[in-house]
Amino acid sequence: MIDLHTHSNFSDGTDSPAELINKALAAGVKIIALTDHDSVAGIAQASAALRPGISLVAGAEISCQSDEGVSVHMLGLLFDTENKELIATMDKTRENRHGRMQRIIERLNEAGIAISIDDVLAELADGATLGRPHLADALVKKGVVKSRDEAFTQMLHNKSKFYVAHYSPTPVEAIRLIKAAGGVAVIAHPMASHRGRTISFESFGDLITAGLDGVEVDHRDHSPDEKNALIQLARENNLVMTGASDYHGNGKLNQLAEYTTHPEQWERLEALATERRVITL
Q1: For residue range 76-103, what is the model confidence (pLDDT) as tens digits?
Q2: How far apart are CA 182 and CA 81, in angstroms?
Q3: Are β-strands 31-34 and 71-77 bridged in parallel, bridged antiparallel, or unpaired?
Q4: C-alpha to C-alpha distance for 26 and 205, rounded to whole angstroms
Q5: Which pLDDT band holds residue 253 (cuts at 50, 70, 90)?
Q6: Three-state SS for 33?
Q7: Where is the Polymerase/histidinol phosphatase N-terminal domain (predicted)?
Q8: Mind listing the domains of the chain with CATH numbers?
Q9: Beta strands in the chain, from DSSP E residues, in sequence order
């Protein structure tokens, strides 16, 4: 099995990279991509935890925003993790997350919800990328909500009055950076409409022109109709079709390998990178 979208506690997951590798191996995953938000900081630990039977794809889920203000997530896979321009862009995005978090907290406080930035940072592992799931965990600990899912459903979703956007590259720019670093670009859960506004199908033209390699078709947050529309889009534009769990560990329903990528699709995708960068023992 091949799972190309997972997270560790170096962003908003709850498992360490080593725990993630061990759980993936136990689940029968043969190839796993670690795609923490705007970070490759967990790749070294994941690599060190590898054992026979499982290989690692270094990656990142890059936060993007379209010209229309729509949040887009772009999976960068198989790129040079020391590429200075791509790493600098991800660093800038992460740094901006702290100011954004403070503004979200201010809005929550104005609504009478007692939470502080210190409460949120207490949920953050060393070196991790700050995100709304850490705020959700702090709200759970405070007794405001019962779970991460409840926090997002009630107050942290993209349409919420508490939502605050943050700096991020455009999807076209993210694709350019990934390709310049020798990797492949796959748009993550592009039609997950319950998360908030999604990009239009017309927008895919610019992404494909920029070099988009694939689309995440099989994902928990896609309805059957959305999945079918993405399959048609991929076939018409010769895009690789991937499937992935978007696993985050505890607090989210997603399970490792609940959706996977077909080996033939993976072979197509890997061939589009400038080098073979799969990490094995």
Answers
A1: 999 999 999 999 999 999 888 888 899 9
A2: 10
A3: unpaired
A4: 40
A5: confident
A6: strand
A7: 2-66
A8: 2-62+74-91+169-271 (3.20.20.140), 92-156 (1.10.150.650)
A9: 2-6, 31-34, 55-65, 71-77, 184-187, 214-218, 240-243
